[in-house]
Amino acid sequence: MTKILFYLALIAMFAVLVVLGAGIFSLVRGGTFRENWSNKLMRLRVLFQAIAIVLLVILAWAMHHSS
């Protein structure tokens, strides 16, 4: 069970990294692309961060209770 949670947390953290990179790209590019995508990417990043934090907390709890 902890392996599954570990890999899910890694995937969630990677998703945060990808969305953060896309958000930075949208800021650098500017123009209408930034106007259309900047806020959406920020909200998506916050969602992925919340998921990653929840998974990490569950993983820590599962590792603590498995020993």
UniProtKB/TrEMBL annotation:
Domain HIG1: start-end pairs: 1-67
A Pfam family the protein falls into: HIG_1_N
Transmembrane segments: 6-25, 46-64
Keywords associated with the record: Membrane, Transmembrane, Transmembrane helix
Keyword Ligase set for record: no
InterPro entries attached to this UniProt entry: Hypoxia_induced_domain
Name of the protein: Hypoxia induced protein conserved region
Native species: Asticcacaulis taihuensis
